[in-house]
């Protein structure tokens, strides 16, 4: 699903963004406004929300609010605390391109890197980290393992009303466990507090206010504020927390604006010289009542949504026969489970019957069909189980006796138990460790797959749809590998 | 800090990186959240989104939303 990045599109949007930002911050600021978003997860279009209406959120409505507030107070910063990518069709289709273009268009001052911002590989981020001054992509605790060079700028300064504001980006150390290994290959994620302290020492005396742009989660932000005195404001993300009232740990104010762009976070800091005298925290609903800004709205509709329609018709594979869901072993289940195993290089893979949402007719398979079959945007995960746990897992599959699929293994059901289990063609060894792939729903014990919650070295690899598309594309090159109903589970 | 995540009504689940609010709820609970009849909260009383990442020792508390 790799697509070429539209650099010309980005260039055009940068020009637009800078012209929209063509104000100068004067030296008479008494109020600094910090606008913030987090965990947008590519929610660029409006969508129904039970509390905010049929057309809530969306980049065009966010843009209206941002410009309105900038007109009220030009001493305004706009920050995003990470995870702009992954979560919608547009994100999957354009591999994060649209999210970055809209970040330019809205004129963000700085973006932190969330774990999902690596979902489309490092190259998606590198254009910004290496060439763009705005938005500044900042990550103080990510370095190249070889040589220790920072992956992105660790921090950025913004001057507002004569104040020098140091903004430091911090990313979760769990990122390598929450995306495909290839997406973070060659990178090291250092302890955030350690990286922050180091920058504070280095920049001591150079800044008036310290803002941490964190993709660490609210619980970790609280711990960070306790461990590192001297932070004025933490703009957080990752835990999708809706902080509606001022939350302080010591003198540090912590904010976060829920998720998916449903709210625009606003902090108004009253300043007396270089001292904060008062802080006001607000979450502004991005509801159906907010009129959409015409420019991002047209770009989204006329460019991305139109292109998306064309891409959904793209053929990503050809099914030699109809792949249907059925009780017992199914060709569709085998395809999905084989895709998981190939994607993760696990010893065996499972796919639950309830996760297969549509059949695939013989013939061309379009991207739209992939979305029908696998609509949930679940992460593909792996865990390490002992042979004994695998036995228990297969006993549970035998007891369910439904249409769940397996890959890399076979067994026979007798008296409700799994017998003659083979993994990779060899008999199951009870004391051996096996790497097992499944979707995040099953890994959390969904459908009562409780044994999967007992594994070790759990990690995420990427979206289930991505696994299927990559596997379908591999099968185009090697059609002899098309999965058959071949007696993986015999009764 | 405990490596367990406590979900409503003394249900405990093991923590692993990448575990989210959505993945610790039952399908029925998730559906009610999406319909606006339940809301998940953290131990500090803040609402948390379905996609929110959990930490070791996190608590997820479900509260019914008053209808009408």
- The amount of beta strand of chain A, in percent, is 25-35%
Query: By helix and strand content of chain B, what is the structural category?
Result: alpha+beta
Please write the string of helix (H) and strand (E) elements of chain B.
EEHHEEE
CATH architectural arrangement of the largest domain in chain A: 4-Layer Sandwich
Major sheet of chain A: 6 strands, mixed
What would you report as the Rg of chain A, rounded to the nearest angstrom? 25 Å
Total of domains of chain B:
1
Lateral strand order in the biggest sheet of chain A: 6-5-4-1-16-17
Provide a short characterization of the protein structure.
The complex is a heterodimer of chains A (491) and B (68). Chain A is of the alpha/beta class and 491 residues long.
What does it look like?
- The complex is a heterodimer of chains A (491) and B (68).
- Chain A has 491 residues and is of the alpha/beta class.
- Chain A folds into 2 domains: 7-307, 4-Layer Sandwich (Purple Acid Phosphatase, chain A, domain 2); 315-490, 5'-nucleotidase,  domain 2, CATH 3.90.780.10.
- Chain A contains 13 helices and 28 strands.
- In chain A, the strands form 7 sheets. Chain A has a 6-stranded mixed sheet. A 6-stranded mixed sheet of chain A has the order 8-9-11-12-15-14, with helices on one face.
- In chain A, strand 16 and strand 17 (275-285) form a beta hairpin.
- The longest helix of chain A has 19 residues, at 294-312.
- Chain A is globular.
- Mean pLDDT of chain A is 90; it is low at 12-29.
- With 68 residues, chain B is an alpha+beta fold.
- Chain B has one domain.
- Chain B is built from 2 helices and 5 strands, in the order E-E-H-H-E-E-E.
- Chain B has a 4-stranded mixed sheet with strand order 2-1-5-3, covered by helices on one side.
- In chain B, a hairpin with a 3-residue loop joins strand 1 and strand 2.
- The N and C termini of chain B lie far apart (40 Å).
- The relative contact order of chain B is 0.31.
- The model of chain B has no long low-confidence stretch (mean pLDDT 85).
- The chains are: A alpha/beta (491), B alpha+beta (68).
- Chain A binds chain B through residues 39, 41, 50-51, 87, 115, 172, 174, 177-178, 217-220, 238-244, 247, 258-260, 379, 381, 383, 440-441, 443-446, 453-454, 458-460, and chain B through 13-14, 16-21, 23-24, 27, 34-36, 42, 44, 46-55, 57-58.
- Strand 13 (241-242) of chain A pairs antiparallel with strand 4 of chain B, so a sheet runs across the interface.
